[in-house]
Write a structure and sequence with these properties.
about 800 residues, alpha/beta, 7-stranded parallel β-sheet, globular, DNA-binding
Length: about 800
DNA sequence: ATCTTACCGATTTTT
DNA sequence: TCGGTAAGAT
């Protein structure tokens, strides 16, 4: 039988229906973002508006339907009637909506006749976590094509380009990456060489200076310092020398990764062209956080084809202090006048009340892109404000509320406490430990920043890159092998005089008249290094690491120390070994410098588990991108949040306000905002007024509590005793008026006006009718009604 | 070479 | 207040 005639219209109609079905779950704005593959797109994605969904589906749409869906006047060759039937069949199937993976391969191939090559897609994020999440969501939709696209962070993408191309800039392609600590080491070295006092020219401040200029794409010789500004003049000299030292060490810092890539593109148009040709479809996540260098990188890459989609939210720009330039997103349309601007304003995360509060707070900022989040979610609970007496009372309140939430079905991992500064976490931790609330501090020190990990990494870095003197100096006497400071100074002096690396000095030890002990130590060290170096390329990273730990005696030393601390170090090293194993398993051939750079670009946040069974304590900054059912914002006081340092920074308060917006929009169901009347910070009492952000919250959305009892325990001057008792009485009356003000539970310590300290041994009844049995040492057990008893929690 | 003592400084930090 | 670092003692 002859083949049935198939008309393009039939095919096209079916293909279109398939497209509709695949993207049926998206709202109109998301869908517009998804299908606008051609030309520049600015997608303003409010908090919780499903921007990852939009980006992920955009990738799928590009692969299946190409950049411009409108062109539909021809049909791929060889479409048969039975293909149309198969398409019909898929359309008739239930549960296949949004699931491209259920499409038969044949149909997939037919409909994607205009689809783009996955190799031409570049999706850039800021964090590994975001990149991973995107990959995880794209992979099931597109299959192995995921491995051909670049879905990665700015730094990872630049790293990959530089490993390939950096030779033309005069670096060796086995360069190492210096983290913040290494950086400071180099700066200290530079200060010493320039004979500058590191008290006056603080290394941290120098690194800020350097980083600031690097993010502006300014090399030392492009910087003009105003006359007479000695400090900046010196800082510039430090920057100059610092950069020379990095080159000597064949090392790049984080900023270099981006900056050098841009310089590479600027200096070598043919290389730029290669990448422009490859990456015809570019997407950037969190565009509001880009600094000038990152902006330039994207601008250059996108220049040729202009298929660039940036996604972000100017209201969530909170990294100005890291040179993120909010203007990049605000002025996107200046660079791309033809840009489509799409706003994702429907929020899928929070209750109406939470969103209303967030909108209200952010609306006070000027110069924002106009937008207003809304949601179909329920109205939700009132926001809870609590005025605590001090930071302990604040912690107590949080702990108590969490316990209450558990009763109504919440779990620990549904709760997060967000702080403005890390120092605030201490009081919370103490209380959580006391009350057995499992918590995790997120963000603190990075795994890879721990001493023992840095040590083993220094060995590996030095092996990978013999020019790396920072790593060499770190480990030359670790574990101790009799190489003291004096010896090290001799090595450094010799290397500077003869213009060789310190690694090279090791080969000429006879030239430096050294003591017998130091000499032996260095010879031993050299032998060890040679032995390790022989393993390069042959052994796996795991084998190499194990050998180093064993042969240097590093592990043995920790084990024999047998302290609590050394034990945890050994555990960390084991953890490190599992990471090397993971790496060894996925790569065909061990590549040390590859492994090391991967490690350098990983942070702790990446390992944050959302279903851990712990309450998360973290800074508001680290919370960005996360969501929790119940969020506690603590330290809502002037000076803490907004932080006093922001008061005299330009745009400082606006950034704090955005941070507040970010913090509020982390909450899905319940939001608690807590301020303390008094706070001990750095050993000093502070009395800060409640945060202006609290005043900006609409009153009708809030339930305001003030539980002052504990306040008077912190006032210890005896002469205030009378006032204290009067206030206690006052507070008891208040607490009766506010339901749920004080709840006692088993084991609570209390203080009774007459009987002193006691412990609650039984609780009967609820709220105001609560009856307690309290054991007072020396007085026996008393039964008391909460309503009347002169009680205070202790 | 390693332990002890005094001093400083203390937002936020995706990489 | 506290923790890290840098200089001094043994």
């Amino acid at each position: 039988m002859a083949e049935l005639e198939v008309s393009p219209e039939q095919f096209w109609t079916l293909r279109d229906r398939i497209r509709q079905k695949l993207f049926a779950g998206l709202n109109p704005q998301q869908f517009k973002t998804v299908e606008s593959g051609l030309g520049p797109v600015l997608c303003l994605a409010g908090a919780g508006s499903g921007k990852t969904t939009a980006m992920v589906n955009r990738v799928l749409h590009l692969l299946l339907f190409g950049p411009a869906y409108e062109e539909k006047d021809y049909m791929p060759l060889g479409v048969k009637a039975e293909d149309l039937t198969a398409m019909e069949f898929w359309l008739g199937q239930e549960g296949s909506a949004g699931k491209s993976s259920t499409l038969p391969e044949r149909i997939r191939n037919l409909i994607s006749y205009q689809g783009v090559d996955p190799r031409s897609i570049l999706a850039i994020t800021f964090t590994n976590k975001a990149a991973q999440e995107m990959k995880d969501r794209i992979a099931p939709m597109v299959g192995p094509a995921i491995n051909k696209m670049w879905v990665m962070t700015f730094h990872a993408a630049c790293l990959r380009i530089l490993r390939q191309e950096i030779a033309v800039l005069g670096y060796d392609n086995n360069f190492v990456i210096y983290d913040t600590q290494d950086q400071l080491q180099v700066i200290k070295d530079a200060l010493k060489q320039l004979d500058l006092d590191d008290k006056k020219y603080k290394p941290k401040s120098m690194s800020m200076f350097i980083s600031k200029y690097k993010s502006e794409l300014k090399a030392p010789d492009q910087i003009v310092i105003s006359k007479g500004n000695v400090y900046e003049e010196k800082a510039l000299r430090v920057y100059t020398l610092y950069q020379e030292l990095l080159i000597k060490n064949n090392a790049l810092d984080f900023d270099d990764l981006i900056m050098l890539t841009v310089i590479l593109f600027q200096k070598h148009p043919e290389i730029l062209d290669k990448y422009q040709e490859r990456f015809r479809y570019i997407m950037v996540d969190e565009y509001q956080d880009t600094n000038h260098t990152q902006y330039m990188l994207i601008k250059l890459l996108a220049e040729k084809y202009r298929n660039i989609c940036v996604v972000g939210d100017d209201d969530q720009s909170i990294y100005g202090f890291r040179q993120a330039d909010i203007r990049n997103i605000l002025e996107f349309e200046k660079d791309y006048p033809e840009a489509k601007v799409i706003k994702l304003e429907e929020n899928y995360r929070s209750t109406q009340k939470i969103l209303e509060a967030a909108n209200k707070v952010i609306s006070k900022n000027k110069g924002r892109k106009d937008k207003r989040l809304w949601t179909q979610n329920p109205e939700g609970h009132q926001l809870v404000q609590y005025l605590a007496s001090d930071e302990k009372d604040e912690a107590r309140f949080v702990a108590e509320q969490i316990s209450k939430l558990l009763v109504v079905g919440a779990e620990f991992q549904d709760c997060a406490v967000l702080v403005r500064t890390n120092a605030q976490s201490r009081a919370l931790e103490e209380w959580f430990i006391r009350t057995n609330i499992p918590y995790k501090l997120i963000g603190g020190t990075n795994f890879y920043e721990r001493k023992e990990i840095k040590d083993i990494l220094a060995y590996l870095k030095f092996l990978s890159n013999p020019s790396d003197s920072v790593s060499l100096l770190r480990i030359i006497n670790v574990p101790r092998r009799g190489i003291g400071d004096a010896t090290v100074q001799k090595l450094i002096a010799y290397s500077q005089q003869n213009n060789v690396t310190i690694g090279q000095v090791l080969d000429n030890l006879d030239d430096l008249n050294l003591g017998a002990r130091a000499f032996k130590g260095l010879v031993d060290f050299r032998q060890l290094i040679e032995k390790f170096r022989e393993m390069l390329g042959k052994a796996t990273i795991t084998e190499l690491t194990e050998t180093i730990l064993k042969e240097t005696g590093y592990l043995q030393e920790l084990i024999s120390e047998a302290s609590y601390e050394s034990q945890s170090r050994v555990e960390n090293l084991h953890e490190f070994l599992t990471k090397t194993q993971e790496y060894d398993e996925i790569v065909p051939e061990p590549n040390l410098s590859e492994f090391l750079s991967q490690v350098s670009l990983v942070s702790d946040l990446d390992t944050f588990e959302e279903n851990s069974g712990y309450v998360a304590i973290m800074t508001m900054h680290s919370a960005k991108g996360l969501e929790f059912k119940n969020v506690f914002l603590v330290g809502m006081e002037e000076g803490i949040f907004p932080h006093f340092r922001s008061f005299d920074e330009i745009g400082g308060l606006e950034e704090e306000r955005r941070l507040c917006y970010v913090a509020i929009t982390r909450a899905q169901e319940r939001l608690y905002l807590i301020a303390a009347k008094q706070r001990n910070l750095y050993g000093q009492h502070n009395y800060n007024p409640p945060s202006r952000f609290l005043r900006d919250l609409p009153e009708e959305l809030c339930e305001i509590h003030q539980n002052g009892e504990d306040f008077f325990q912190t006032v210890k001057e005896p002469r205030k005793l009378e006032a204290r008792q009067a206030s206690q009485n006052l507070n008891r009356i208040k607490s009766k008026l506010s339901p749920g003000g004080v709840a006692y539970s088993l084991g609570d310590k209390v203080i009774h006006d007459k009987w002193g300290e006691g412990v609650v041994v039984a609780v009967r009844g609820e709220a105001e009718e609560q009856e307690l049995s309290i054991a007072f040492p020396g007085e026996g057990i008393k039964n008391l009604l909460t309503k009347y008893a002169p009680l205070v929690k202790g």
